[in-house]
Amino acid sequence: MARSSRRQPSWLSLSLSILLLAVFMPAVMAVKKHDFKTCEQSGFCKRNHALADDIASKGRDASPYRLDPNTIRMKNGQVEGTILKTTSDSERIKLPLIVTFLDSGSARIQIDEEKRQRGDIELRHSSKARKERYNEAGSWALTGAGLQPQKLGKFDKGDESTTVTWGPSNQFSATITYAPFGVEFAVNNTKQVVLNERGFMNFEHWRPKIEKPVKEEGKEEETKDEPAVTGEDESTSWDESFGGNTDSKPKGPESIGMDITFPGFSYVYGLAEHASPLSLKETHGGEGNFDQPYRFYNADVFEYELDSPMTLYGSIPFMQAHNKGSTVGVFWLNAAETWVDIVKTKQDSTLGLGGHMDTQTHWVSEAGVMDIFVMLAPTPKALSKKYGELTGYTAMPQMFGIAYHQCRWNYVSDEDVKDVDRKFDKHNIPYDVIWLDLEYTDDKQYFTWDADTFPDPIGMEKQLDEHGRKLVIIIDPHIKNKAGYPIVEELKSKDLAVKNKGLNIYEGWCWPGSSHWIDCFNPAAREWWKSLFLYNKMKGVQSNVWIWNDMNEPSVFNGPEVSMPRDNIHYGNWEHRDVHNINGMTFHNATHHALISRAKGENVRPFVLTRAFFAGSQRIGAMWTGDNQASWGHLAASIPMILTQGVAGFPFAGADVGGFFGNPSKELQTRWYQAGAFYPFFRAHAHIDTRRREPYLLGAPYTEIMAQALRLRYSLLPSWYTAFREAATDGTPIVRAQYYVHPHDEYGFALDDQFYIGSTGLLVKPVTTEGDESVNIYLADDETYYDYNSFKTYRGAGKHITVAAPLEKIPLLMQGGHVFARKDRPRRSSGLMKWDPYTLVVVLGRDGEAEGELYVDDGETYEFEHGAYIHRRFKFEKGGLASQDISASWTPKDNKKKSAYLKTMESVTVEKIIIVNVPKSLESKTEVKVAGDGVKSGTTANLSYHAAGEGNAAWAVIRNPAVMIGADWRIDLEVGGDVKSEL
Ligand code: NOJ
Question: Where is the composition biased (Basic and acidic residues) (predicted)?
Answer without folding.
Answer: 211-227
